[in-house]
Write a structure and sequence with these properties.
Elements (H helix, E strand, L loop, with lengths): L2 H6 L6 H12 L4 H7 L1 H4 L4 H30 L5 H9 L3 H8 L9 H7 L3 H9 L5 H6 L9 H17 L2 H14 L1 E6 L17 E5 L5 H12 L3 E6 L2 H12 L5 H51 L9 E5 L6 E6 L5 E7 L8 H14 L4 E5 L4 H9 L8 E5 L4 H5 L2 H6 L5 H14 L1 H5 L18 H19 L1 E2 L5 H4 L6 H15 L16 H7 L3 E2 L17 H10 L4 H4 L3 H5 L13 H12 L29 E10 L2 E5 L6 E4 L20 E10 L4 E5 L3
Parallel strand pairs: 4-7, 7-8, 9-10, 13-15
Antiparallel strand pairs: 1-2, 1-3, 4-5, 5-6, 11-12, 11-14, 12-13, 14-15
Helix pairs in contact: 2-5, 8-11, 9-11, 9-15, 11-15, 12-14, 12-15, 13-15, 14-15, 15-22
Organism: Aquimarina hainanensis
Pfam family, one: HHH_3
InterPro entries: HHH_9, NA-bd_OB-fold, Ribos_protein_bS1-like, RNaseH-like_sf, RuvA_2-like, S1_domain, S1_Tex, Tex-like_central_region
Length: 708
């Protein structure tokens, strides 16, 4: 099967679209570039569809690689026949391919291999023929130096039969169907762990059982984490009697009891010793894969929303990393996010230097012409917010609470050390808080996405798959927004289509040596940035106050000549065409259609001419928590509180209500109707009014509702 046919069978996409997409991918094009600038080739596929093609392409290549490995291994044994090779090549199921390979797989010394070495394979074959009624007499003929009795001979034959049953594809597939329908996952607490404090968070799984196919991803991952931490033992099982009947239906062919009694013993051994452990592991792995995919999908959607959160923009910001005993670290940033000043204040216990702290903050706001204040939402956050809001500034200053998850990770990172080699982690962390307010995307790309705090069991899922998915999300967001090539950091530039880490460093070095780039063509002067990288990256990089008016837009340089022709045809200079809705309305798109430029591309060009380089993100707005709520003891059932969604899971969302503990809105409390997707109701950073429906003081848990 060709790769295009393989993918077309799995996705509702035409083969031509798939073939053209694969061609572009193999030429080195990125998903953002293909979806935005090659719409005619792909039939206007979006990033999601192209991403699915990429995953299926990787799956196809994995299967092909495995097939070649297996064919080579069987060939080395001299056991590869034309029919066997044809069968392997025709299969596109890794499970089926592994089943075919199982009899040829090199084995360690097993009961069956020992029995074969003792000359008992012919006896096993006689048993499997199921015609011999004097089987004990027949077994006596196989007594030798290694086999002392008839029973030992029959035991060895049964060991061989058990291995044959284990390798029987029909048996394995029939059992798989039972596992799919009836497998149950069971968790039992390890007695020595039952009373341990750390184990109590898994208390609900101390004696748990449910159908595996009904176990939601978050619960399965929680159970497996409990097992990993040696709190519970986990088993996957199916009804044993049904499993044995299933095997016997395949293996038993006659009613000659002398043989079938032996085979019954062999099949039971095969099931308990070989099949059940292998297929239970297989079923659990499949369930784990689905759970991983669900968790990664939730994490990816949360990350996307966080990266595209509203920026305040280029403002002079005073940022505070709050604290009690160690004080509050204060930094002043200019509109580009550069550090101007840093110092500590101590407005809270135990020092309570409130008056001095007020004077310092007022002085800094005036000296550095501060336009907004960012406060990290960690320890002492609300106290610091109250303190700041009491200060009588000479002008109106907006105060924002900023999610500081991952700021400490950034402050100790190689990137932070390179940016601020002369400052300690506290200064770096405060700078990160301020920059997050100005532009969340530009700052968060410097942090490992797993550390940002918007995932669901992110440390328990397939780490390679998670990294690939999150990298794709970051790249998508960066290219969706577009980047100022003259102000972007190397980490931010590295996510631009076609750039990567090395070219990003080269661009920053080029800026440092030659000054700001004045046109997109200057990119061609950057060392090692060749024609392919320019094609992929140029349209996603913006030049402010450029030489060419389209260099600050999402129009690709390859279409500049086309846009110039449009301007000429409507009798307007190109620089005057941009933003001129009346002149743009006179452009007749059909006059510019060609083999490689169709309506999708032309429509995008017109949108960009109307509003060039518009940031798709909304502007940040001030949010205020209930000033009467400072800790969990201030909360009571029935209260209505303002909150911000700070994490989304499959089972609901968590809401920051201005205290240390976030409240949970269970999925059943999001709406007066059945909800299958939490993201259909709420989004990350969404501002809500929630109702408190339960407060568990002992466990520090708050239940909230959106339903009146």
């Amino acid at each position: 099967m060709h790769i295009v046919s393989f993918i077309a069978k799995q996705l509702p996409i035409a083969e031509k679209q798939i073939a053209n997409t694969i061609k572009l991918l193999e030429e080195g094009a990125t998903i953002p570039f293909i979806s935005r600038y090659r719409k005619e080739m792909t039939g206007d596929l979006d990033e999601v569809a192209i991403g699915e093609i990429v995953k299926r392409k990787e799956s196809f290549e994995t299967i092909e690689k495995r097939k070649e490995s297996i064919i080579g291994a069987i060939g080395e044994q001299g056991a590869l026949t034309p029919d066997l090779e044809t069968r392997i090549r025709a299969s596109f199921s890794l499970t089926e391919i592994e089943d075919i390979y199982l009899p040829y797989k090199k084995k360690r010394k097993t009961k069956a291999t020992v029995a074969k070495e003792n000359g008992l394979e012919p006896l096993a074959k006689i048993l499997m023929e199921q015609r011999e009624e004097e089987i004990v007499f027949v077994a006596s003929k196989y007594i030798n130096e290694q086999v002392a009795t008839e029973e030992e001979a029959l035991q060895g034959a049964r060991d061989i039969i058990a291995e044959w049953v284990n390798e029987n594809e029909v048996v394995r597939n029939k059992l798989r169907k039972i596992y799919k329908r009836k497998a149950a996952i069971t968790a039992k607490v390890i007695k020595t762990k039952k009373e341990e404090e750390d184990a109590q968070k898994y208390k609900q799984y101390f004696d748990w059982e449910e159908p595996l196919h009904k176990c939601p991803s978050h619960r399965l991952l929680a159970i497996l984490r409990a097992e990993k931490e040696k709190v519970v033992r986990v088993k996957i099982g199916i009804p044993e009697e049904e499993a044995l009947d299933c095997i016997d239906d395949v293996v038993i062919k006659t009613n000659v009891e002398a043989c079938t009694d032996q085979i019954f013993l062999a099949t039971e051994d095969a099931y308990k010793r070989l099949l059940a452990p292998a297929l239970a592991t297989e079923a659990l792995n499949e369930a784990k894969t689905r759970a991983d995919d669900d968790a990664i999908s939730v994490f990816a959607e949360n990350l996307k929303q966080l990266l595209l959160a509203s920026p305040l923009g280029q403002k002079r910001i005073l940022a505070i990393d709050p604290g009690f005993k160690s004080g509050c670290k204060v930094v002043c940033l200019d509109k580009h996010g550069d550090l101007l000043h840093n110092e500590n204040i101590y407005p809270h216990p135990p020092q309570r230097e409130t008056t001095n702290a007020i004077k310092k903050i007022k002085s800094l706001v005036n000296a550095y012409k501060t336009e907004a204040i960012a406060i990290g939402n960690g320890t002492a956050a609300r106290e610091t917010e109250f303190f700041i809001k009491k200060i009588p500034f000479d002008k109106s200053i907006q105060v924002f609470m900023v999610n500081e998850s991952g700021a400490s990770v950034y402050s100790a990172s190689k990137i932070a050390r390179a940016e601020f080699p002369d400052y300690d982690v506290t200064v770096r962390g405060s700078v990160s808080i301020g920059r997050r307010l100005a532009d969340p995307l530009a700052e968060l790309v410097k942090i490992d996405p797993k550390s940002i705090g918007v995932g669901q069991y992110q440390h328990d899922v397939d780490q390679t798959k998670l990294k690939n998915e999150l990298d794709s999300v970051v790249m998508s967001c960066v290219n969706k927004v577009g980047i100022n090539v003259n102000t972007a950091s190397a980490p931010l530039l590295s996510y631009v289509s076609g750039i990567g880490e090395k070219l990003a460093e080269n661009i920053v070095a080029f800026r440092s040596e030659h000054g700001a780039l004045t046109s997109r063509n200057d990119l061609k002067k950057v060392p090692r940035l060749g024609g392919k990288a320019f094609e992929q990256a140029a349209a996603f990089l913006r030049i402010t106050n450029p030489e060419h008016p389209l260099d600050n837009s999402a129009v690709h340089p390859e279409r500049y000549a086309l846009v110039s022709k449009m301007a000429k045809d409507v009798g307007t200079p190109l620089k005057d065409l941009i933003g001129n809705k009346q002149a743009i309305a006179d452009i007749k798109l059909k006059n510019y259609m060609s083999d490689d430029v169709g309506l999708p591309t032309l429509t995008d060009i017109i949108k960009e001419l109307e509003k060039p380089g518009v940031d798709p993100r909304k502007t940040a707005s001030v949010f205020e928590f209930d000033p009467n709520v400072k800790e969990i003891s201030d909360i009571s059932i029935g209260m209505k509180l303002p909150g911000i969604v700070n994490n989304i899971t499959n089972f609901g969302c968590f809401v920051d209500i201005g205290i240390k503990e976030s409240g949970l809105i269970h999925i059943s409390k999001l709406a007066n109707e059945y909800i299958s997707d939490v993201n259909s109701i709420v989004k990350l950073n969404q501002q809500l009014i929630v109702t408190v429906i339960d407060v568990d003081m002992e466990r520090k848990r708050i239940q909230l509702s959106l339903i009146d």
